[in-house]
Amino acid sequence: MIFDSILKNIERHITLSEAEKADFCSLLEVIQVKKKEYLIHQEEICTHEAYINKGCFRTFFVDREEVEHTFYFGIEDWWISDIYSRTFKVPSQYKIMALEDAEVFLISDNALEAFLLRVPKMEYFYRKLFQHSMAVYQLRLLQLHQHTAEERYRNFRQKYPEFDRRIPQKYIASFLGLTPEFFNTVRTRVLKSW
Length: 194
Prior knowledge:
Layout: H1 4-10, H2 18-26, E1 29-33, E2 38-40, E3 48-54, E4 56-62, E5 68-75, E6 79-80, H3 83-88, E7 95-98, E8 102-108, H4 109-118, H5 121-146, H6 149-159, H7 163-166, H8 169-175, H9 180-193
Antiparallel strand pairs: 1-8, 2-7, 3-6, 3-8, 4-5, 4-7
């Protein structure tokens, strides 16, 4: 079934009945996103939660000097959205771009809220999802401020070994808070000692 992966993702935390699974799946929209296309544009209000069934995405923003800053990567079996924009119904400060051809399952905020009222145990699932996201975000901020460039790259490679093959180095550099040139130096040093 097309929705097996998202249902397995949810069932890591809760058990849904067959009727609840069917109800939830009926709310999902399947979309194809081509490489370099956007799931969300900067200044657009985010109205969906997205589950990545296939592909890889990058969440980033562009500052006043037109420099891109990568905030988040997402791959298969991960969720991606602009939580701030969705929560406060304000224009997104981020862009979410596909780094590969991708397939995403979208659920609108309205459909999700209605489902959460019908199936309260889904609140637990989303609380766990957001707790995990917040914990990862806090760790990332700590590492940006307390770890050397080499330590950040080592941690990145250990935690996400497949990203080096799938994500262009300039985006990894941006995620780590480094210029592409300095990242090349750091990457060379780390790989020699690996």
